[in-house]
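User: Structure please.
Assistant: Input sequence and predicted structure:
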Amino acid sequence: MGINNYFGGDMTVPFGGFKESGNARDNSLHAMDDYTELKTTWIEFE
């Protein structure tokens, strides 16, 4: 707990809930899958 203090936390600890605001959990390794998209790029070298 912090009062008038920023807590960065740990990326492995989820933050969020399931009630009226929706069912989202941020700040976890699983959240990274929700916010990123895998993309493949091909580059030809001559």
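Residues 29-35 form the longest helix (7 residues).
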